[in-house]
Write a structure and sequence with these properties.
With 493 residues, the chain is of the alpha+beta class. The chain contains 15 helices and 19 strands.
C-alpha cells in the first residue's frame, strides 16, 4: 500500500473520533528499530530504553538530561579518586528479593570484566574497584580522577546479582524498574506490566506495549488511527499530516546527537586520508539540511560535537562543498575513475536517515564514487556492530549528553565502533577523563576535535532533533533529549 493511501486511511479513522484502543489501559509506543535482544549493555539508547523499563541505574536522567538520584540517593568524594555512595533502602527486585550493595558491586564488576561483552563499558572504565561498606553503601575507587563517573553510571542498569549468576539461561530481564517483563517477540513487540510496588511510584498505565514499526509512514498511520499513542522519529515530510490531525500532535526535542557518516579506515579505499577528505568535500550539507531536513537541526561544524556540548571547538568550520577538489583528491589517491562502495543505515533510527543516505549517494555519484545503500533491520545492525563489521561506511549518531566524553569515546580503540585510531587522540581522551580541571579537559577536547577534522574518520553531518508524534489523549509525557522513553507519568484521557 503506498504511503499516501495508508495515511489517507489513517486520517479517515482518526477523524471518525473512535481510536482503536480508546478504552484500554494500555500505552502503545511505535519504535523504529529494536535491539537484537533485551540483554543490557549494547551501546545504543534504544537498548537503554528497553533496559530502563525493567531496571534502574544508580543515577537517573530526567527529560532534559539532568542527572538525579536513582538507586543511589547520596554521594560524596572522599578524595579525588574515592567516592562513597549511599543506596536506596526498602527497594525490591521484581522477584521480591531486596536490593543491596551486592547488586551494585556485582553489576559493576561484571561490566568491567574484560570477558564480558558490554558495549557501554567505556563509560565507567575509569573505575578501579568497588567495595561494599554496608548493606546499602559502596565505595568506588578510580584509577585517576574521573570527572564523568556519575554520568557514566547513569547508563549502567543495575542487575540482581543472584538472578544474573543463578537465573535460567536466556532469562528475561528482571530488575527494580517501573515495569515488569511480560513478553518479548524479537523484531515485533515488547509487552510489560506496571510494577505497582515501584519505589518511584507506580506507573499510571497498567500495561505498556513497545512495537517495532520500521517504516515511518506506517508509524504515522498507526498514530493517526489510534493504534499507537507515541511514535518516534516522524520524518519531515509527514510532520504536516500529524499537525493537521485532530488525533495527534508533534512533540520534538533538541538532542546532542551528531549524525556522521563513518568510514572503515582500516581497509581500502578509506584507509587513505585523501579518499576520506574527498568524500567530505563531495557533500553539500546545506542542501540536505534545507531540502531533506526542512531546516530542522544544525550543521556540525567540522567535528563530532554539537555546539551545546562541553568540549565543542568554536574555531573549526566544516569543509566547503567542492566536488572539483573531491575529484582531484580521488585522482591523487589512485582512484581517477572513482570506486564502488556501500553505505549501511537503519530506517527511522534518526531523522530522515534513509533519505539523507540516498542524498549522499547522489552526491558521491557526482564525483565518481558509486555507492549503494544497505538498509539494515535493527537486530542485524546490532549483531554487525557487536561483531565490528559495519562494512565500508555507515550512518550513525553519537550522543554527547552535554559532555564530550560520552561522544568521543566511540572514536577510541576501546569504544570499538570507529574503525580508526590515532595515538594523540587516544592520549588526549584519557587525559580529559582523568582530571577535574575543566580548563585542561576543554583544551584536550578542542585538540581532539581538530584531529577529527584533520583526519576525517567520518563526514560530520548534522546535529539532529528528535521529532515524535503523540496522541492528543496522552498527558504526563514529553520526549527526552537522549531519546530514552520515560513513561511512568504518562496517562490516557
Amino acid at each position: 500500500m503506498r504511503r499516501r493511501s495508508i495515511l489517507a486511511a489513517a486520517t479517515a479513522v482518526a477523524s471518525a473520533g473512535t481510536p482503536a484502543i480508546a478504552q484500554q489501559r494500555q500505552l502503545v509506543v511505535g519504535i523504529p528499530a529494536f535491539p537484537d535482544s533485551l540483554t543490557p549493555g549494547f551501546s545504543s539508547f534504544t537498548s537503554l530504553t528497553m533496559s530502563f523499563q525493567t531496571m534502574d541505574p544508580m543515577f537517573l536522567r530526567d527529560e532534559d538530561g539532568k542527572v538525579i538520584p536513582g538507586l543511589a540517593t547520596e554521594w560524596r568524594a572522599a578524595d579525588d579518586r574515592t567516592w562513597r555512595f549511599r543506596l536506596r533502602e526498602n527497594v525490591r527486585f521484581h522477584d521480591g528479593t531486596p536490593f543491596t550493595a551486592e547488586d551494585v558491586k556485582g553489576t559493576i564488576d561484571y561490566v568491567l570484566d574484560p570477558r564480558s561483552v558490554y558495549g557501554t563499558r567505556n563509560r565507567i572504565a575509569g573505575i578501579e574497584s568497588v567495595s561494599i561498606i554496608g548493606p546499602h553503601e559502596v565505595e568506588v575507587r578510580t584509577a585517576a580522577p574521573f570527572p564523568t563517573l556519575i554520568n557514566g553510571l547513569s547508563d549502567i542498569p543495575i542487575e540482581s546479582q543472584h538472578y544474573r549468576t543463578s537465573g535460567p539461561a536466556g532469562r528475561p530481564p528482571m530488575g527494580t524498574g517501573p515495569w515488569r517483563y511480560a513478553r518479548w517477540v524479537a523484531g515485533d513487540r515488547y509487552e510489560l506490566t506496571a510494577n505497582a510496588d515501584y519505589w518511584g511510584g507506580a506507573p499510571r498505565i497498567e500495561r505498556l506495549l513497545l512495537r517495532q514499526i520500521p517504516e515511518a509512514s506506517t508509524r504515522v498511520a498507526s498514530l493517526l488511527a489510534g493504534e499507537t499513542h507515541i511514535i518516534q522519529e516522524v520524518p519531515i515530510d509527514l510532520i504536516p499530516r500529524v499537525r493537521n490531525s485532530r488525533a495527534a500532535e508533534i512533540a520534538s526535542v533538541e538532542t546532542s546527537v551528531g549524525l556522521v557518516l563513518t568510514f572503515d579506515a582500516t581497509k581500502p579505499p578509506f584507509n587513505d586520508r585523501r579518499v576520506r577528505l574527498a568524500m567530505d568535500y563531495a557533500v553539500d550539507r546545506q542542501q540536505i539540511l534545507d531540502q531533506i531536513l526542512g531546516g530542522q537541526g544544525s550543521l556540525l561544524q567540522g567535528q563530532l560535537l554539537t555546539a551545546n556540548t562541553f568540549g565543542f571547538n568554536p574555531n573549526i568550520r566544516p569543509r566547503p562543498y567542492d566536488p572539483a577538489m573531491a575529484r582531484r583528491l580521488l585522482a591523487e589517491a589512485g582512484y581517477p575513475r572513482g570506486f564502488t562502495t556501500t553505505i549501511a543505515t537503519r530506517s527511522g533510527r534518526y531523522l530522515s536517515d534513509v533519505d539523507i543516505t540516498n542524498a549522499l549517494v547522489g552526491m558521491f555519484q557526482e564525483v565518481g564514487v558509486r555507492a549503494t545503500v544497505n538498509v539494515m533491520e535493527g537486530g542485524v545492525w546490532a549483531r554487525q556492530a557487536t561483531a565490528g563489521d559495519m562494512g565500508p561506511a555507515h550512518l550513525v549518531g553519537w550522543f554527547s549528553l552535554g559532555d564530550a566524553d560520552f561522544a568521543t569515546v566511540w572514536f577510541t580503540r576501546g569504544g570499538q565502533r570507529a574503525f580508526w585510531s590515532n595515538e594523540e587522540y587516544e592520549r588526549l581522551f584519557v587525559e580529559a577523563r582523568s582530571t577535574v580541571d575543566e580548563s585542561r579537559r576543554l583544551a584536550a577536547y578542542h585538540r581532539m576535535m581538530e584531529i577529527l577534522n584533520e583526519e576525517a574518520p567520518s563526514v560530520f553531518l548534522f546535529g539532529l532533533p528528535s521529532i515524535n508524534g503523540k496522541s492528543r489523549r496522552l498527558t504526563g509525557w514529553r520526549p527526552s533529549s537522549d531519546t530514552i522513553l520515560r513513561l511512568t507519568r504518562a496517562e490516557l484521557n
